[in-house]
């Protein structure tokens, strides 16, 4: 369905007249749903339909989606329909879940000289893409005067600290919900079937994953279940293994709340013990044997297929009743009596770090060099995505159809959303890849979801009660830092110690070359200095090997 954004009543009549005069009457109809009236004022009073003023442009976007995300054609994708009309553009929109296939397709686009004009990519990917000249500096467009909606979500100072190189503007900030909703999730029905309690320490957890693997928790008389899984993407040991938390390594990088030391899951001396414990599980078959080669989507689908007992993830994706596409709801289609619950196997340990952005939006260097006129239009579209109107449409749909509004309270219509969004490719997931789920505080909105069950609410209460670690700051590597080689070596030494114990019997010697020749000491020392500059208490960096 086509849309014309509501403005002031008189302007609405005027704009409809302009559209008709320009020969576009076939793009509107008397049943056009209304969109929220915000962006016109927030963008400096620009005319709501600029199609008659702006030069038509063709843009290409590449955003992450869910495994079930398929972009519908025609007017079913009401976001694209609206944006194309509002900004006089044609958008070629491509999406895949983050993972190997996403990276492969992006690389193919880049190598063929067709890098997406606008892309949402992982923060680690941006470092290499920036070094390779794929991402370009956005320039003066990345400021509060040009993007007032975007800067409601991030301050200029935070954005500056988030750049790969000081003074660059190549990496747009993808904000996140600062309230973590991640947890370990466990098959409660398997615990009940085996007459086990929630594990509260490492010994109990090991017994549970053993029982989930060996004692036929689903009762199908087949040896086809595993206690735990996590993705390795064929190149790394995931920090989601609970052995890290058991040994006091709570996140990839963090400030120890007791010692105030800056610790990492890559260089800490205790990582040898962590990897030894992981090997204990994998050698006994308690972990899905395909974990190392699996990506996120593969691991999650195995959980949804009823083969995994414990996994790490986000509550809304894994366990909510209110998310029709949650892995819990997928699981219940196969096993109606399945029950999935959030739990902390180490109640005295913090579970989550105050969330920092893990993804970025960027404009291709090719676009900036060859089509600078596209950059301004992309900036306008990105700013719209962060506006109240953009957030509501890309997350919840059309007002008075997919949700209703009373003041600042948004009440969802789940049935209409399912029919028009979920059943037509769950496409809004890709459109709101830049903005956080379930976080409307920057817009001053309260969202009421009538499908949120008591079970969902109880689960969030459990997760909200977890301890949260002090987060540091957005980090900038030292100038000229070779991030690609560093990241490869960082993963390589853990893989070597885990899988090649006969060749690498000790953990600490593996650290020496990584800390010195690959610049880990320089990098973490810079991170510590940047953290100290923000006023956060953290001790000076000391090399774990003393060198």
From TrEMBL:
SUPFAM superfamilies: Periplasmic binding protein-like II. The keyword Signal applies. Residues 26-40 have a biased composition (Polar residues). It comes from the Bacteria. Keywords: Signal. Gene3D superfamilies: Periplasmic binding protein-like II. Residues 26-50 are annotated as: Disordered. Residues 1-21 form the signal peptide. InterPro entries: Bact_solute-bd_prot1. This is ABC-type glycerol-3-phosphate transport system substrate-binding protein. It comes from Paenibacillus eucommiae. The lineage of its organism: Bacteria, Bacillati, Bacillota, Bacilli, Bacillales.
